[in-house]
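Box 3.1 A note on notation
Throughout this textbook, protein chains are presented in two layers. The first layer is the amino acid sequence; the second is a token string describing backbone geometry. Keep the layers aligned when reading.
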Amino acid sequence: MSEKRRVDTVAEILQVGVDIERIHFFGLSASVNEAFDGTNLDEEVVPNYGMKSRHDGRELGYRMTARLEPAVGSVFVDVAVDYLLAEDVELSDELRLEFANEVAVMTLLPYVRSAISELTLKVFGAPLLMPIMQRGEVSFTAP
């Protein structure tokens, strides 16, 4: 059995070769706060994000959650991306976190944005639109 290749940077992971295998949702929900009086519908709401990762040989996966609690109700999105590496590699926990912040976040944010907009349009009657985010604005730290 051959040894796993050790990679130490996100650039090295990308050089090995990474493909998106699939993007899938684990949960989507929005609910109206029945006590909402209709005022302050334009409030700025900052999502609370979470991220989990997994790595097994050539498989690398990330699962991102976003929770919003505006006055009008609540929204929850849980979406994942599965990557397939071109070869079996060894990744440190720190490097998996760096890949999450540099690559996976930018892969998943458009899906989170779209889901929030669609859910809130259907449930609240008006979409909540996430602002454009620069690389690094959403990032995660080790637990």
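The chain is about 25% helix and 35% strand. The chain has a mean pLDDT of 89.
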